[in-house]
Every structure is written in structure tokens, then in C-alpha cells.
Design goal:
about 300 residues; elongated; about 25% helix; alpha+beta; 2 domains; five-stranded antiparallel sheet; 15 strands; 7 helices
Length: about 300
Amino acid sequence: MAACAALVVAIVVTPRPEAAPEPARVKLPEKPWLSREAAAQLIRDDGGLGPVFAGITVGGSAPSAEARARVEAFARANHVDIAFEGADDELAAIRLEVTYGGCCGYEGVDVLALRMHRPHVGGGCTCGDGVIPNDWAFTTEDHAHVRVRARVSTIGVRWEAALSLPELLERADSLLGRRVADARAAAGDRWIDLQSGHSALLELPYDFRDLDGYCEVPSVAGRDDLGAQLTTDHGQITAVGLLLEREHEPDATVSSLTARWGQPHEDRETGRLTWRLRDRLVTAEPDGHQLTIESKL
């Protein structure tokens, strides 16, 4: 009788190792918002430099090591960015940037913007509900020029020494004929190219026209309340336009123009003032508010 052998196949099932538990997600704590008390230390009620900047003046000497250390320590403690801008031991500007975290950082920006005198533009019968601009500028009583940018949850502030009208005219006059590349490099973010490629806005620390003159706020590039409108050609600045509506004394404006360029020719019909100089033509509309400096053809 033949013996039958049974073939037994053993199948060994190896249990899968248990998946390692996912590490718990740790939510990073949000940076605390700038407190009202800290904001008051940074910015006065009129929008000027607050007590933390005591002994520091824009347009004056560079801050001492002690003053710089005090400001930097305050910035670290309150999670804000502060930068000093200058050259040749002179403080040209102070920049502040504050970012509010979380879902509703724009609310923090709106509150701080109130301290920075954010204007409301338009409204009434002719301008509808009006708008609140995200870019504005003003000058404090102690002649600090303040430029403010609000972008969702971040607000940036720049303080500079405000130019007098004679200083503004000198600055504008010196721009004519300058190479665009050099002027742009020197200006940094104060230079804003326009879409045409042949014009630009150069922000200047002067109290130009009031935003109340607008029904709708145009793009920053088209804002003649922020600086000089430049025309360029073949890599050079060929015209500089300024709107001087802030000057409440027309005679004082014309006196400053005359002090710089001499006696003008006045058109009896339009009141336009014209200075024909060796290499440039200067024109001012009645009361001297609209000023243009351009190269002679």
C-alpha cells in the first residue's frame, strides 16, 4: 500500500507595525498686537515722533548710540520694525512698520491709522459716500513730514524734515536734466514709475494739495498731493510739475518764485507767469499754484 505524504504549507502572516501617531500640531503663538500705550510712545497725537524718540530729530544729526539702543530695545519688545535712514552723519528719515497678525489685522491698522490722521475723501452731494485712502501724507506743527501707507494688516510710516517752499523749488530745479537712473537710485521707494514709461512720481516731503480736492483717490502714481510729476525722455528728466495748493498766501508763493528765477513775464489775459531762462522754461499758473519746469527744445 503506497504511503501518501501530505504537503503542508504554512503561511506566516506578519502583523503590520502600527503607524506612528502624527505629532500634535503646535500652533505658534501670534505676536501680540501693538498696545495703545506703546503706540502713544511711538506716535504723538498729531502724528509726530513720540516720546521713545526723545532727543532724535529728522533732518538733524544721526541718533546717538544710547538713543539708538533705546529705540531698538523698544522695537524688539513691541514687535515693530524701526529703521534710521541717513548719510554723512545726518538723519534723513525714520521709518516705522507695524504688522498686526491673525484674521483681523486690518482692524489694528485702521485704529493706528486714526492716530496718523487718515483722511476721509469725498462725500456729500457731489462725491457720494467718499473713500478712505491707503496712502496719505501730512506735516506736523514741528515741521515733520509724515508719509503713511496702509496695506491690509501692515502700516508703514516715514518721518522726514518738511521742505520749505524755497527748498522745494531748489530740489525741483535740480532734477531737470538729471539722468533717470541716478535719480531713481537716489530716491529709492520714493520714485514711482508710471505705466507710460516716460513719466514718474517722485515723493517729496512737502505739504502739497489737500486730498479734499478729490472725489475718488487715484492710484499712487497719479497723486500730485504726494510729490513732483516728472516727464522723462531718452533717460533724462525733461520736465518737473508741482501743484502748490497748500500755500495760502499767493503773494508769498510768487515772491519765492521771483526770488529764485527773477522777475517773470506776466500774461495780462491769463495771469500766467513765465520765466525764460538759458536752458529751461518755467511757468506758473495764476497765483503760482501750478508750476512747471521744463527743458527748452
